[in-house]
Structure formats: structure tokens, C-alpha cells
């Protein structure tokens, strides 16, 4: 990420750490840099295209067809918006990795870092909010306080609060990032004041806010949601439970490797694993785990939106309007399938289970 000294920012040498502590060797990472010039632009481009299409469709459907918003719709909208902000920054990082120089100036260094970090933390925080909303609706469905706080005004207030938290978490990275003319050319990375703890703090912040808190919330909430769903007499409860397990598993599998590498970098910052071999291995591993973590934003539309039968139908409908020749047949098939599925279950069971789906 653009936080600290990973491959996205093109900082492969740890020169600053070597100057500050004297305990690090100044290692050559020419092989890692050469590999990233081909590897990162290619994968970033794939993530950008697929993620932009999926999240763009989510925004179009929510804007066009949802007349009255609730917490779920507001979360989906802002989750897709967060992913789009994150994705917009990827072409700049891809170009940076390809030529190994930052050519966009100091202002764009701050701006791209801001888009990157706001999108990253916004996506995490709105996933947490969606999880808490599902927990409140399903586990505490008969509580008056829950229905009162699911109004449009409350949803917008919660969304504003989440964006404020995202901005606060991103602020150190936005402030300390700057374009600098170094010996190897112009770079865009965080320049932390010497003798401060900002750099180790950024590692810890990323681990806590990026994995520990969201994973803990998801495990707690869904461990309470699943027993409630199992008591519902409906064929859709198994689909809902599977979806929950997919949500937690995908989040864990996609973000855990990245956070492990981040924690190892934190240990290196403290003076452990200071050999050149460790540095090269961490930089090479960071490229792979970053791409895996970044691709999670491509899966968000599929996991949180397209798995819903109603939402999927609306996506096909809007695609039919834009591309009538390609998607006209798909709309007919899905409409017939939806009608058959709807006639097989009662309205009460559908309402009870589709809230989580």
C-alpha cells in the first residue's frame, strides 16, 4: 500500500531506516524492481478494469432503482464508492511501478495517496457497518431501537461518521506523503520525521484497523446470526449461512497474507530480520500479497450485491437497456427463474432470509 515502504510506492531500499538506526544494510533490490515493472502494472490493470465495472454497476443500480434508502443500501452505495476511490489510484501506482519514477508532481502524490487510503479504510469500515446492521436486524429484530435507527437520516449520519473515521485514519499517510527528487529519480512515498514513531505506528494501525477489528466484528456478529437463521424454516437459510461463511473466509484469505507481511515489516523496523535476504523476500512477497488483497474490491460487488436475486435481476435489466442485443435473452431467463423461485416460498420466509442475502 501507499502506507510505509512497500512496493506500491516504489521504496525498495530502506535507505531511510539505514540512516536512522545504522542497523540495516543498504541492499540492492534490482531484481525485485525489475520484476515489479512488469508484474504490478499488469495485475493492477486487471484489478482496475474488473473492479471498476463491478462497482460501477452497483452504483448505477442503487441510484436508478432504489427509491427509498435504508442502512443496507447506504452501506452498499458507500462500499462501492470506497472501492472506486481505491481503484482510481491504481493506474497511477501502475505507471509509477512501470517506469520506477513519479512524474505527477507533489500535489498528485498527496491526492492519489488520499484516494488510496480513503478507499481502503472506507471499504473496511463500511463492511463493518454492514455486518453490524445485519446483526442488529436479525438478532435484535424485535427491538424498537433497531428499527428507529434504520431510518434514512440515521443511515446518512452513520455513513458520514464512517467517512470521517476513514479520513482520520488516512490523515497521517496523506500528510507525510510527498514527491521527492532522490538519487534514483522522483519518488512518491511517506517521509516520516526522524526520531518519531510514526512509521511503526502506521504498521500497527494497518494491522489493527485493516484486519483485527473487522475480522473480530465479523466473527462475533455472524456467530450470533447463524443460530438465528438456522431456526427459520426456509430453504434459503442454507444459502444465507453459506454466504456468511464465504464472507468471513474470503476476507480472511485475501487480507491475512498482506497483514502478515506488514507485521514482518514492522518487526524489521524494530531491528529484527535485518539481512538483505529478508528484505528481498519481504519486498517480493509484498507484491503478491498486495495484489491478492487489492483484488478483494473486485469481489465486493459479487459478494454483497450480485448474490441477491433481486439485485441481480436489476443488474441484468440495466444491462439490457444499455446493450439490448447482448442481454435481452438473459433478462427473460432470469425473470422466469425469479418468478418460479418466488412462488415456491412464502413471503414471510423470504423477508426473514433475504435481509442477510
From TrEMBL:
Q: Localized where?
A: Cell membrane; Early endosome
A single GO molecular function term of this UniProt record: C-C chemokine receptor activity
Q: Which branch of life, at top level?
A: Eukaryota
Indicate how the chain sits in the lipid bilayer: Multi-pass membrane protein
A single Gene Ontology biological process assigned to it is: calcium-mediated signaling
Matching entries from PANTHER family are given as: C-C CHEMOKINE RECEPTOR TYPE 5, CELL ADHESION MOLECULE
Output a single Gene Ontology CC term carried by this record. external side of plasma membrane
**Species the sequence originates in:** Hemibagrus wyckioides
Name-wise, this protein is: G-protein coupled receptors family 1 profile domain-containing protein
Instruction: Please list every transmembrane segment annotated in the UniProt record, as residue ranges.
Output: 43-63, 75-94, 114-133, 154-176, 201-222, 243-264, 284-307
Domain G-protein coupled receptors family 1 profile: start-end pairs? 54-304
InterPro entries found in the cross-reference section:
CCR1-9-like (IPR050119), Chemokine_rcpt (IPR000355), CXCR4/ACKR2 (IPR001277), GPCR_Rhodpsn (IPR000276), GPCR_Rhodpsn_7TM (IPR017452)
Q: Does the keyword Transmembrane helix apply?
A: yes
Name the keywords, alphabetized. Cell membrane, Disulfide bond, Endosome, G-protein coupled receptor, Glycoprotein, Membrane, Receptor, Transducer, Transmembrane, Transmembrane helix
Amino acid at each position: 500500500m501507499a502506507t510505509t515502504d512497500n512496493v506500491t510506492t516504489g521504496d525498495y531500499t530502506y535507505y531511510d531506516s539505514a540512516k536512522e538506526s545504522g542497523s540495516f544494510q543498504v541492499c540492492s533490490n534490482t531484481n525485485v524492481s525489475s520484476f515489479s515493472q512488469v508484474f504490478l502494472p499488469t495485475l493492477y490493470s486487471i484489478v482496475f478494469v474488473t473492479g471498476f465495472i463491478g462497482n460501477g454497476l452497483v452504483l448505477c443500480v442503487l441510484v436508478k432503482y432504489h427509491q427509498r434508502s435504508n442502512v443496507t443500501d447506504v452501506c452498499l452505495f458507500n462500499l462501492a464508492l470506497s472501492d472506486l476511490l481505491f481503484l482510481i489510484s491504481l493506474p497511477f501506482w501502475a505507471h509509477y511501478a512501470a517506469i520506477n519514477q513519479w512524474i505527477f508532481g507533489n500535489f498528485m502524490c498527496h491526492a492519489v495517496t488520499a484516494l488510496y487510503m480513503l478507499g481502503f479504510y472506507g471499504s473496511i469500515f463500511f463492511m463493518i457497518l454492514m455486518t453490524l446492521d445485519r446483526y442488529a436486524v436479525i438478532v435484535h429484530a424485535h427491538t424498537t431501537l433497531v428499527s428507529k435507527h434504520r431510518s434514512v437520516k440515521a443511515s446518512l449520519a452513520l455513513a458520514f461518521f464512517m467517512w470521517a473515521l476513514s479520513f482520520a485514519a488516512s490523515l497521517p499517510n496523506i500528510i507525510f506523503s510527498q514527491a521527492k527528487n532522490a538519487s534514483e529519480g522522483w519518488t512518491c512515498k511517506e517521509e516520516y520525521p526522524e526520531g518519531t514513531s510514526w512509521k511503526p505506528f502506521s504498521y500497527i494501525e494497518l494491522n489493527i484497523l485493516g484486519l483485527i477489528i473487522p475480522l473480530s466484528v465479523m466473527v462475533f456478529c455472524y456467530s450470533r446470526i447463524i443460530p438465528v437463521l438456522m431456526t427459520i424454516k426456509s430453504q434459503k437459510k442454507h444459502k444465507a449461512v453459506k454466504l456468511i461463511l464465504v464472507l468471513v473466509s474470503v476476507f480472511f484469505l485475501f487480507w491475512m497474507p498482506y497483514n502478515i507481511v506488514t507485521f514482518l515489516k514492522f518487526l524489521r523496523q524494530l531491528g529484527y530480520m535485518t539481512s538483505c535476504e529478508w528484505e528481498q523476500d519481504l519486498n517480493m512477497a509484498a507484491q503478491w500479497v498486495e495484489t491478492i488483497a487489492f483484488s478483494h474490491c473486485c469481489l465486493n460487488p459479487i459478494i454483497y450485491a450480485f448474490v441477491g436475486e433481486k439485485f441481480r435481476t436489476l443488474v441484468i435489466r440495466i444491462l439490457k437497456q444499455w446493450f439490448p442485443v447482448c442481454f435481452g435473452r438473459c433478462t427473460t431467463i432470469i425473470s422466469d427463474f425469479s418468478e418460479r423461485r418466488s412462488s415456491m416460498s412464502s413471503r414471510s420466509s423470504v423477508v426473514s432470509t433475504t435481509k442477510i442475502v
